[in-house]
Amino acid sequence: MDEQVERRDRAAAERGDLDAMVRLGLLAEQRGNASEAERRYRWAACDGHTEAMFRLGGILQERGESAEAEQWLRRSADVGNVNAVGAVGYLLETRGDLAGARVVPRGGRGRRRVLER
User: How confident is the model at residue 2, as a pLDDT?
Assistant: First the structure.
């Protein structure tokens, strides 16, 4: 990301643009700054950005915080993020919880809902 684009995204994020916040989180991840990426994703996720929820869940999972990771991934999956659906299934599978990895149609536009156990 060039400096001008980054400055524009920083200004937009300060104004509450969640997409800009997620782009800055991606940039922080690319630069190896996981704590900054987590801060950006958490901000956007708390305001309902589904991609931020998914990415925050991934960071938490990598850090070994699977319970919180699962919460964020489920929230993202429940609103239709298909990548998050797969991530929840993978997380549960790595725990040995194959039954918990079930997915059922949610209705409307092919969305899916990850079942609560």
Answer: 86
How does the average pLDDT of the chain come out, rounded? 86
Which residues, 6+ apart, have CB-to-CB distance to 18 below 8 Å? 44, 47, 48, 49, 52
* pTM over 0.90, yes/no: no
Tell me the average pLDDT across 44-67.
96
Please check whether residue 40 is in contact with residue 25, taking contact to mean a CB–CB distance below 8 angstroms.
yes
Between the alpha carbon of residue 33 and those of residues 1, 25, 36, 49, 59, the distances in Å are 15, 9, 6, 21, 11
Please give the Cα distance from 35 to 29 (Å, whole number).
Answer: 9
HSE, side-chain direction, 13 A CA sphere, residue 3: 0
